[in-house]
Amino acid sequence: MLVLQILINGLLLGGMYILLAQGLNLVFGVMGVVNLAHGAIITVAGLFTFWFATHTQLNPLVLLPVVFVAMLAIGALLQRSLLEPLAGVGRKSELLSLMITFGLSYVLVEIGLDVFGSQYVSLPNLQTTWSLGGLTINEALVAAGVLGAAISGALQIWLRHTDSGKCLLATSQNRIGAVACGIDVSRMRCIAFAIGSSLAAAAGVLIIMVIPLAAQTADSLTILAFVVVALGGLGDYRGAALAAVVLGIAQSAVGYYGGGDAESVVPYLLFILFMILRPQGLGRAVQAQ
Amino acid sequence: MTQATFNRALRPLALASLAAALLCATSAKAEERPIVIGGSVSITGALAVDAAYHLHGLQQGIEDANAQGGWLGRKIELKYYDDKSDAGTAVRLYTKLITEDNVDLVIGPYSSGITQAVAPLINKYEKVMIEPEASVPDIYVPGNLWNVQGIAPSLGYLEGVLPLAKSHGAKTVAVLALKSAFSLACDKARLEQVKALDMSLVYDTTYALPQPDFSSLALAIKNAQPDVVVVCSYYPDAVGIAQALQRAGYAPKFFAEAIGPAEDEFTKALGPIANRIISNTSWWASLKTAGNAAFIAHYKATFHQDPDYHAASGYGAIQALGAALNAVKAIDQAKLHDWLLHNEVQTVQGTFANDPNGAAKKFNQYLFQIQDGTRKLIWPLADAEAPAQIPYTGQ
Fold this sequence. Notes:
The complex is a heterodimer of chains A (289) and B (395).
Chain A: H1 2-31, H2 38-56, H3 63-83, H4 92-116, E1 129-132, E2 135-138, H5 139-161, H6 163-173, H7 175-180, H8 185-207, H9 218-232, H10 237-258, H11 260-277, H12 282-288
Helix pairs in contact in A: 1-5, 1-6, 1-8, 1-9, 1-10, 2-4, 2-8, 2-9, 3-8, 5-6, 5-8, 9-10, 9-11, 10-11, 10-12
Chain B: H1 3-32, E1 35-41, H2 48-67, E2 76-82, H3 87-99, E3 105-107, H4 112-125, E4 129-131, E5 147-149, H5 161-167, E6 172-178, H6 181-196, E7 200-207, H7 215-224, E8 228-232, H8 235-248, E9 254-257, H9 264-270, E10 278-281, H10 292-303, H11 309-328, H12 333-342, E11 345-347, E12 350-352, E13 366-371, E14 374-379
């Protein structure tokens, strides 16, 4: 029963990690850029959700579709105004894009600090804990984990079973090939950044119910998301989902048996091990077998 | 005597008068210059919630001192920068405050860890520094001559929890601590207390921030089934661990967290989960300490919230510094330091008195419990406003 509880906790934590990482992975896959503002978007969306829920007394999940759609527009605007002008500068564009997202991250964190303050906040919603045959499952973790997995699943279906999704996937796999096939790569970059931003914002709406957030937690979320993406294989969507679940379960088990300090180092230890032994990532390692 | 001769004779006198007038004007201007107290404050970062009360306490103390005419006939100003809850940043800021801003006096930052980093700098520049938020004993040693503690020592944090729990039949204990100077000192003291009280330690761990998930620690606690859970925490982890225990479906009979529950933000973040959590304080609104009623009234009017003990520590530090300055009658660091170590000052948080190493020796520690949304003093029993509500229910 204990092992099953550790597995459930790990799966739910993994669901949250999927949510954290998918947007970053999508942007990297299509644009070849690690969006360093990813954690800042998650955090600002989470803080906005806190502000909204405490001022309106409404369920924060009401915000999920609104924030998702709003961030599509904002993400597209940011990509067009800040990143797309760099597309024509050749090999330097990836480095410049990295620097711009780094700057954007600071701007968003400062906006978060000015608008929402610096304190850690968390929402006391969905705190019911269900007991099922000796297992305990929390409503907020289930909501974050299941919705995270559902959003990730929807993304997979869109990428693999729709024309627009296939165009995006093709762009992430081979940009020159995509251009040769007549795909509007510039448009794909815009769509990828917009959806990546929306996924980050959706993660923020859900995560504020699970862990305390403050504007300055943005960097640690970006790093965690990057570790998940790197473990899964950069740009590999199924690999990232698998890595998120593996990481969640590993942290739950190590935290239970080894304590808090041991749990904290698990993501980074796995990251180093994978970079040495399986730099192609967990997803491609599994596919290869 | 011709007019020209008369003018020549008067010229030196006129020049001397002019010089004297200028000197007087400059001297008067110097006296009017405010006394500037410098310090860093964790406006952002993991310590920001608790540190905001510390800053408000300092600001209120200075406002009230200015309303009473200031110190040495001069107004008082606070010059502070954001250390981002980072010790390295704080060291840079104190260097700037002392060497570039040339502040007259310095006041300690928020938290023991940041103060530990700043302490050598204070010794180097020989500036007396009252530390209203640094509770660990390691700072107040012979090598750190210029540090004066302005808060109850960390060894006493949550000191009453285990005796209180034992008196209600509790036998088993879990202790968790954040890896910070304060929390580890608190952790060490509580672990020793478990042994001294002949209770059984069934779980013990430390963790670091940012820790996104406490579910595995909560599961381990649940599996160990302790009667008492003691967390040597700051605000963010206090919230995270309370949430995780509730999600694991475990409610120990006694649940105590060191720093966090005193703040209104804590009950807002946790909702009903916060009910019956026990925590520590070195100040309370009902105590008949010097200026306490006025402090509370002014603080509420200025900041539209109730003060907590961090605010009282900040306010008390200003009261003590003011008493020292008014006694010494000069901004003389050595004399101020000597006076503070050899005199007692009655402040809002009790008697400000220190041993030769600068450690506070007369502040008291209390326990309070969140009872249906309000905080009630429950220990020591002689000062209790209400009996402890047992057990903690987690909802």
